[in-house]
User: Fold these one by one.
Assistant:
Number 1:
Amino acid sequence: MPKKKIEIDPTQTTLPFPSTDEEHLDISTLETWLLNAANTIRGASDAPKFKDFILPLIFYKRLSDVFDDEFAKHVKEFGDEESTREIINLDLENALKTGENPIVRFYIPQEYSWKALRNHPADGRLGEFVTEAMREIARLNPLLQGVLDVKDFNESQSGQRTLDEERLEALIEVLSRHRLGLQNTEPDILGRAYEYLLRKFAEGQGQSAGEFYTPKEVGELMAHLLNPEPYTTIYDPACGSGGLLIKGRLQFEEMHPNEKSQAPQIYGQELTPTTYAMAKMNAFLHDFIGADIQIGDTFRNPRFVANNSSLQRFDYVVANPMWNQKEYDDAFYESDSWNRFSDGIAPSSSADWGWVQHILASLKDNGRATIVLDTGAVSRGSGSQNNDRERDIRKKFVEKDLIEGVILLPENLFYNTSAPGIVLLLNPNKPAERKDQILLINLSQHFEKGKPKNILTDDAIDAATEVYQAWESREKLSSVITLEDTQKTDYNLSPSQFVDVGDKVEHRPVNEILADLTEAHIAREKADKGLEDVLAQLGLNEKR
């Protein structure tokens, strides 16, 4: 039986049910609500499979509710709804021709509002209508192209709808329970709820999750270490869903609450279209409209370039590229036209040091970078009698004094591996007191057990940040090593080589141990003899 449709006055600018404009959503309410909406699809275990349907609908709801709020504000300014709609439409036509910003952030046609989706007839064409609506909204708002129009809500596999009408209707109905307008939730709160949902999807997607999500605690650690300054730029060449870029921007806003106009500009590039769309949505939901996110293969087609032979350079770079990529051979590195790989060609078995060189080429002379890599990136090849490409590139970076630090992370943090990982810190322009030194931090034991993944603790983030700023060695946490120290380990920069986090065991001299054993043996013989004497007196030691 078709569900009963809610009658909606097409001139209304707010949902009549069940929320009001006065409702203000906190982070807990948002997280619970969005997770419930996701689970509506097919239950908690299957919801991550449908993230490419769920996330655009949440984003669509925010766009529609914000437009309704802005429309209502302009009605007060222009006098009536008809005049307001005409003025907004004319302004949009002009903006599309000139490239200027329209008077509304994003234009949502009345026939494609959230109310229209929710009240669509139960005729079996809801998926088709949602797809049509998203594509038209993307056409009218160029910033949303490749973001809102990437999913076909009517798609089928083997003649079966991927997301059937009933579940799509149920999802839209659950999302209709709350408004996401300007007065209902702050962009930061909504963005955090979105990140929470991404994490929940990552927990359910296992190996494939690493393509789009880096644990937020790791991102917070990297942001704390960089601590961006005003009027700077942050770049991520493998940005996934944009979490590392957003953490850097939020770190600035936390440290400079009254200087948001001076906040760093963020730039990112992502290979996968659906993940690129997630990154754009993530930035928009945090109200970072000016975020410049590009799509494409960063290695083969970097989108941020200064000219035909060099890359655009940034104040900060954050990255968690795919570890140990194997699709780049010698011919690729040798034919590079951007002068990125002058310190050596990475082996075909791992592009890790190819990524590090790309990041260095994207970094200003006084810039800094934090890069998440496999632990092997700082140790492979050391101690080998043969030539090793990774060790040789690492050696050049050490001798050029480009590496500022290495942080060993706990195991089982990441969604696509149980391996621990490291954070590599680059700084081409170290302060004088840090020249020819590298700070190694061992956080391997600083975690809380979680399901399905461990969690890096807030105390660990604070301790690593503090010791980095103080630049000092601390027992069971950090060690400042010299160039000579790295030579002794053949450029193995693993923190576990220099920072012991286990309980110390004191070993006694062997002669003392033997003397104590002899003394104990004599004491036992005396005790045995005494016992025999007592038993003899009692007549209890006679042989039977």
Number 2:
Amino acid sequence: MITIKDKILSAVTKPTRYTGGELNCVLKDPSAAEVRFAFCFADTYEIAMSHLGLKILYHTLNERSDTYCERVFAPWTDMEDEMKKHGMRLFALESGDEVTHFDMMGFTLQYELSYSNVVNMLKLADIPVLSKDRDETYPIICGGGPCAYNAEPVADIFDFFMMGEGEELIHEVVDEYVKWKRNGKQNKRDYLEAIAEIEGIYVPSFYDVEYNDDGTVKSVTPNNPHAKATVKKRIMKDFNNAYAPETIIVPFGEVVHDRVMLEVMRGCLRGCRFCQAGYIYRPLREREPGKLLGIADKLLSCSGYDEISLSSLSTSDFGGLRELTDGLLKITEEKKIGLSLPSLRIDNFSLELMEKVQKVRKTGITFAPEAGTQRLRDVINKNINEEDIIKSTDLLFRGGWTNVKLYFMIGLPTETMEDVHGIADLAEKVLDVYFAIPKEERAKQINITVSTSSFVPKPFTAFQWAKQDSRDMLIEKQNELKSAIKSRRIRYNWHDNKTSYLEGVFARGDRRLCNVIIKAVENGCKFDGWGEHFKFDTWMQSFEELGIDPDFYTVRERSYDEVLPWEHIDVGVSKEFLIRENEKAKEAKTTPHCREQCSGCGVKSFGAGVCYE
């Protein structure tokens, strides 16, 4: 066990990132565990501890008598320096043991810009980065999360990936590990062949990738009889009874989402054509309000938090929202606990709902029109109109809200400068709504923030074939919008186009990018999601050193018959459906949501959720 000396902790910012021992963390005797599992998040403590999936998998694994799951996060640069200075390797928070003592390391891949941190963490652990260089004496390295659906850029690093939802899948994987370990752990390949038979498991080394002369993928074919031609994701069919922890760790320091998170449903029925989460988490499945109230009561009691947030992709689409919020208010009002409802849609937003939210404390409101003109909102299938936006903001301002954030994307397929100007026009109209209310009836100090991110085409969306705007084009659009916003009462924020560019490279990348990631880390890249550490020029140098053109992955439109790097992964949404949606986008035709009309996307094959309501 490593003892982190006081002098090391006194030399770093936020020492509580590394101490462990928080309220409700799980402490076991490591020597009594047959399987030691390290849940790894390739970012800082405060981001990792805000992740709902960590809370679920950590507690469900620790309910097993044969398994001890501990947390491992990326040390900040000051701590990394101290670790190197004192000869320390990457360690787990609960026991302080180096991760080389563990049987398995599971990384959740939440965003592409964390890939350099995955490599850096393995290096800090003195574990070979490439799967082929690790024998059975090293931990098995596995991955999951949204980026696992196209994990090809990091495929050579991982032993296997878990596709889809992990509450059941992770136990099946651990069960097979227990069997393999009891049989003497002779050959890593034996274990990988055993789990390759499990639905939802993808073992990259069991597949060969061939390329055409033009650099596109020619084929992805299994090279092992245990590997399936296509790997289908797993879902929790009975989400109402899916595992939900009734206790949560309470961090010593502040984290990004410092509150109880109540997952009310999974999936989304809306079908926004740019939204990867909306497709990969289909079908929509809900929990019953009564069940959620029981979970909420336990989580609030064990944590002492003074805020609870409803977690989903589109909270206002939750069927039991009125019953749930009424029930929660009985708990929250009495104990002065704030209720937060993120992910509200403009078109089914009500003042009654907002009045419930503000009973304890009033927060700002974020709406996501996504596009400035109706034509472009129809292209992306947002299915809201300007009237919805005006009506909702009028309700807000009359209800006393003055802090409104409007979220848009620039660089969407078919976007023109007219659409960019539409963002400024819409923000001005929202401001006009405020001033149209009599002075004595409105709150003072209006604050409207327009925020734009740059569109990145993602796998398993209707826009997976689209080209991405070049950096020069994004800068031109950002500057155009900046000059189009005339009012001082409207503030404009925008995302860095360089990070969006790199995200776009890896989002639709293939296995040839793995060496680039390793090279970039060798050249000093890490914490790419943090502006102060992002080294764009170093990344470009790393691509150049290996003779790979990053533009190949971004500013190029794909044809429907091109073999995409993720073609062998099945999320349940069919390619034919995505092609139909892309063609409808070109004509600015919308598709109704799942409760209105089934659009035949393919996820009915799971036999669950909104498809069978």
